[in-house]
Amino acid sequence: MRVFSAPALVAVATAMTLSACAVAPVDTTRRSASDATLPIVVPVEKSPAVFVDDLAPTASWQVLFDRARQLVEWRSSTPLDGLELHLVDDGVIATEINRETRRLVHAQFKNSAYAERFINKITDAQSGTYLALYSAHHNAVFVSKPLLDHFMRGIEDDGLAQRAAFALFVHEAVHAADDRRHDINKVRTLDFRAAFAQSAVYEGHAQWQSRKLCVIAGCLDGLDALDRFMFGTVAGPNQASQSANALSRNVIEYAYVEGERFIDSLASRPNGEQALERLLSAPPVDPIQILDPPSWPDNRRELRNLNLFASLDQLDHPWNGNRYERIQTSPLKGVNLRADPARRAAAVDGFTRLLTAMASMEIHAMDSADAPVDLTILEGESDGTAVLFARTLHANNLSHADATELETLRDGVTTLYSTRRTGAADTIAHTMVGVRGRHILQLAGVGTNPDVMEAYAIGALEQLAAISAASLSN
After folding, report:
1. Residue 173: strand, helix, or coil
2. This model's pTM is above 0.90
3. What are the backbone dihedrals phi and psi of residue 384, each rounded to the nearest 5 degrees, phi first?
């Protein structure tokens, strides 16, 4: 379990870590885990020596871990021989995270020096934010002793503390079983967009399976206590979690809550067991897929997504030159999925039905330390829907403090909405939203020349319109 932050750079690191557990800032509106997913009916069945209540209140972490491992082995029919538990300081976990970060980032950037700078930006903010991590490299579960101690100090009931630790160990053992069955390091796609979706598959499955197993083993209240801790509902400031105060929970809730919803929906199909096996062997690469389980596998939408990316390759613009690297990211970063059920349903409907394709990327200048330009392309189900989303995006940009609306350009075909605001160190942040036909494009950059942004927006929308016209004629 670990802390997630809002900036895209850290969201990338978050999404790629498929076997970590997290905590996040305090929010009293957070629902309990039992409210976050549909009821799961599990037959009352016993396996030898797995019930937490059978253990003495003073049972060691190792004893609890061994019982959790045995339970997962029994349920998954997957031997976990040799899987070890290591209680470590945060530096050991940081080393493991750095290894995985390095593997993903170097797969994205051709420029090794830039990749190293990018890695440093990610990892510098991650120290002390992981509660537990399964490492295939070491065949071990690493648990942060400082965070575990803090977690346990917040639970007055010794029995509940024991059940919470047991639930944590079950979650990590499920990751180990999934890895042994499906070789996750080989299955997952090494790009930032796919990593975001695949984190929801693997974290969602670990949560879903842990909930089922806790019904059997009697640790559901422990899982709920763990849920409250990881989502930050434990009141009061503390040194161990101060680094999370400014961090967003959007990514973690997507991975755990939306991921578990997705898994539960697929498991409820008539061929649910086979569906899950197929999913874990070939997880989706589109983050929107997680919000729309009935459509899985939605290959047609993914083809439309790829067409959005491909259309930009033909654009004659400096950002397509060798000096720049365009990296696919998740279009969901920054989206709040913690609203009430009605608002969530409306948001999901918008992403999955009103928007028929979504693509997002970051444009990095290899010879610069400047922040990348964020680019998002949306395809509406109609021209009117596209205009509605463009206006909504522009209104959201204007809602930020110190945002000023610039001149809106209308040429009868393409409409551009622009804003500017003063950021840190008096830097100027520009946003631009363009709409033409069914396509919407948003650009956001700090210190970026707005004329360059405008040329890209107009050119990209013209390119998308031309491709759409050619497709219709065929």
Report:
1. helix
2. no
3. -65, -40
